[in-house]
Amino acid sequence: MSDATSCSNCTNSSISADCTVDATVKKSPSAQAVLDRYGIDTCCGGSASLREAALHAHLDPDVVVASLNAAPDDVTTTASRALPQATSCGCGHR
Q1: d(CA 40, CA 12)
Q2: How confident is the chain (94 residues) per 10-residue block, as mean pLDDT?
Q3: Which secondary-structure segment (H or E) carries 4?
Q4: Inter-axis angle of helices 31-38 and 61-70, to 10 degrees?
Q5: Boundaries of every domain in the chain
């Protein structure tokens, strides 16, 4: 996985697959919940791009990015809860 900590695309209004997991979580209040439900590691895998993290989790990066961009600021909505629930990365940080 990449060791990038952010990307220029994350300063735009939408999230791209090139943004790192860390930059995405910092940018969007709903990102943590969406990534958790997809099983994308936001703890130890935060330096990976969303593309790398999605592929590592056997997910389509375009679907993950679309979900992040469509997620409302209120993470308690039905759409957010409808995603499959993932488990912790097991590192002990969460």
Answers
A1: 22
A2: 48 84 90 94 87 96 95 55 51 51
A3: none
A4: 150
A5: 8-81
